Model the fold of this input.
Amino acid sequence: MDVKTENRSMQDDNGLGWGKSLPVPSVQEMVKNESDTVPERYIRESKDRPVLDRQCQITSEIPAIDFSLLVNRDENEQKKLDFACQKWGFFQLVNHGVAEELLHKMEEVTRTFLELPLVEKNKYAMAENDIQGYRQAYVVSQDQKLDWNDLIFLLTYPPECRNLNYWPLTPPGFKKTVEDYSTEIYRVTGEIYANLSLIEENDTLGRHSDGCAITLLLRDDDITGLQVKHEESWIPVKPLPGVLVFNVGDIVEM
Done:
């Protein structure tokens, strides 16, 4: 089952793109057509599978940072942020000021797009030399183990990096919702960076695998899908309404 891509942006501007990702089948389509079979390519080796420690403490221990205090440069809250980055590599952000309605709208337009027929989603498929668009990113080998998911990857900041050829016209309001959400997240992450710059400690940060500076996660309120590795145990993060989760990445560690 091959995914056919349309090189929309490359045909339009002959740009160099942002890297190469090989086309792979749609996970959603596999589930629809072969729901009782998982291809070998998606099954990880036993040694690479996380094991959940049923005895561990859960969500309450994962640090919660009050954004409203960070804005006012509260030293105690900055120390909590420092601890969270060094010992966990994750933290939950409360009182961030992003409207709950906007968070739900962002979830809604994304889910609506992913539920479209494959032929519609493929109109926004990643070009051969780009990672923006619909499909699965960072696939560099036919032998690579794949994640059991489909995604749409869009660059939003800086604005000049946006390629609107990959921004779906369906559902209506997708573009405005992503723009509004991105503006708010840009504001929030700017404050996080500002506070991190004031922290003088240089100890090793907690475990993580993201290559960026920080990753902000907006999770489904009904699904406990995120687990945080802390002191060799995997701890489930129970979804809490309106809370944003941050994952510290390699750039912040460096």
Summary: The longest strand covers residues 90-94. The CA atoms of residues 109 and 221 lie 15 Å apart. The radius of gyration is 19 Å. The domain at 8-253 is CATH 2.60.120.330 (Jelly Rolls).
